[in-house]
Amino acid sequence: MRPLVTIVMPFYNDPYVGQAVQSALSQSYSPIEVIVVDDGSWQYVDRLAPFMPYIHYLGKANGGTASALNHGIRSASGEYIAWLSSDDIFYPDKINNQVLFMQERNAWISHTNFNYIDQYSQVTHYRAGVSFERMVEFYRCFLNANPVNGCTVMMRKQLFAHIGLFDESLPYTHDLEFWARAIQAGFPMHYLNEPLVAYRRHEGMGTIRHREAILHEYARTQASVRTAIAPIVAAME
């Protein structure tokens, strides 16, 4: 029996949501369930109409990406959880290849390479992820940056029972804080060097619209991450 995989998709006023849902439903792997968490949208909700028979649609008051992810995770039935932003795209073999990769390594959490795409879904940069030859180099990168694209990550649902959910007090850096917490708890982040996600860069994306707030929050989160990861790096060197 192949494990059920839940794809959790936070959605907030995103015109690309239909493309994201279609990519989730077009996976070569089964069984999957797709949970779309509407985080208080008032635009583009109609674009979900064709998919309603095939997805689990959860509505909630606006609370940010972390709260939407947590809401979806709590409702997930899958043994594995994958996060897909509503403006990004999973390639057809994303779930299949990552599940096999994780099973072979008995991994609790993993991430993959990815491509950048533009507003027209055209690839602008192939294999945009950073690869590291040694795990210590990967961990060292956390001292100054976030080397993990959240929409490439897959986790066992059991992981949340061990380390908790995403921190909802961090609107923009909940992902970085969670990766550091997983590493600190002894769950290595395995890397599949295969571009399985198309990450869309466009004028409406949150990293552009909220740049100043993100930089302010990132400085605080990065300081705590550095405190958590630095001893691990020192022990490995």
Short description:
36% of the residues lie in helices and 22% in strands. With 237 residues, the protein is α/β, with parallel strands linked by helices. The protein has one domain (5-236): Alpha-Beta Complex (Spore Coat Polysaccharide Biosynthesis Protein SpsA, Chain A).
Keywords for this entry:
237 residues, 22% strand, Spore Coat Polysaccharide Biosynthesis Protein SpsA, Chain A, nine-stranded mixed β-sheet
Describe the structure.
There is one protein chain. With 237 residues, the protein is an alpha/beta fold. The protein has one domain (5-236): Spore Coat Polysaccharide Biosynthesis Protein SpsA, Chain A, CATH 3.90.550. Helices cover 36% and strands 22% of the residues. Helix 1 (17-25) links the parallel strand 1 (5-11) and strand 2 (32-38). It is globular, with a radius of gyration of 17 Å.
Q: Largest sheet, if any? A: 9 strands, mixed
- Helix percentage range: 25-40%
Number of domains: 1
* End-to-end C-alpha gap: 41 Å
Produce the secondary structure layout.
Layout (H helix, E strand, L loop, with lengths): L4 E7 L5 H9 L6 E7 L17 E4 L5 H11 L4 E4 L5 E2 L3 H12 L3 E9 L5 E3 L9 H7 L12 E3 L1 H6 L10 H11 L4 E12 L5 H4 L1 H26 L1
Parallel strand pairs: 1-2, 1-4, 2-3, 6-9
Antiparallel strand pairs: 4-8, 5-9, 6-7, 6-8
Helix pairs in contact: 4-8, 6-8
